[in-house]
Amino acid sequence: MKQNKIGVGIIGASSDGSWGGIAHLPALQALSNFRVTAVSTTRQASAAETASRFGIPHAFTDPYELALHPDVDLVTVAVKVPEHDKLVRTALKAGKHVYCEYPLGRTTEEATGLLQAAEEKGVRHFVGLQARTNPALTYVKDLIAGGYIGNVRAVHCNYALPVYSTRSKQINQSRVYLLDEANGANQLTITAGHLLDGITYLVGSFSEVSAILETQAKQVKVVETDEVIQATSPDHVIVNGILANGAIMSTHIRNTHIGSLSLEINGTEGDLRLQSKENFMFQIDSFVVKGAQGSNKKVEELPIPPQYNRLPSELNGGPAFNVAQLYSQIYTDLLENTHQAPDFRTAEAVHELLDKIRIAAKTGLRQKV
Known about the structure:
Elements: E1 6-11, H1 19-29, E2 34-40, H2 44-54, E3 58-60, H3 63-68, E4 74-77, H4 84-93, E5 97-101, H5 108-121, E6 125-128, H6 135-145, E7 152-161, H7 165-168, E8 170-171, H8 187-203, E9 206-214, E10 219-222, E11 228-230, E12 236-243, E13 248-255, E14 260-267, E15 270-276, E16 287-293, E17 300-301, H9 319-336, H10 344-363, E18 367-368
Parallel strand pairs: 1-2, 1-4, 2-3, 4-5, 5-6, 7-13, 8-10
Antiparallel strand pairs: 7-14, 9-12, 9-18, 10-11, 12-13, 14-15, 15-16, 16-17
Helix pairs in contact: 1-9, 4-5, 5-10, 6-8, 8-10
């Protein structure tokens, strides 16, 4: 780390629409305390193109070379889930701090193994559960803690996505891996995983869950080849649960033509509502906060105080926004040795919760968490 500026090497940041390219690079460019010093992709031409476009000094095809470079303090793994285990271990082998996108692994066993490996190395580890750093969620969390709605009694999420293949029954070649449940990247692990982590961040952990997981679009055509793929990943997710504080939670994540996303929290003294502006994905969207208290039946918008936004004004939305909020939190953690940003232990807890949901769906029985 030079002059308190953290050098970041990103594995998987091609400029062709990858998550690293559309979220991580713009996020880091907006933060003066970071500098992207290296990028790695599977093709040298792609890595060189990204490096040239974003002014990054080093481009690699070998992720271990990236991780070993002295200008890299933090390695970001922003590739498909099946590659996470290998690439995180590459960063750990080089002795570097690591940020990995969520899901951390294909399975809970992989996630636990990476947590143990990172702890043994003694490096800092972070995970991309960036909804926790969304200013709207942080504000609502503080409102709840401050007694705005009294004791929490119910949490309900209306979540409809227009981006999965149930509606169209076709998929681009680059996203075919999402259809295979063994790859650990699907409607349950990504969509529900981010949402349920956000709910636990707001109102606490679950004590028990019940669930329905269904694959409605079992055969999906690949756009580029017309090949028909047999899908095994769930595309509809219903989760009901009881939280440790006794509140009841419910959500139905499904695929629709028109997106819709809102989260309502009901308490003994009032109600709070997070309404998405984009109606896209929980971990990406920006939200309007609304509330009503006591006998006042009128729901009013509650403007988010400016101190909840850590970012410069030029970055005010889109995929990079919450990622940049998370990097800002990571900077403080690294500089001051605090532990505010979500890490591999946070990810492991979400993986374990999803395991309980799978068992509940398979058995039809409530599962203690």
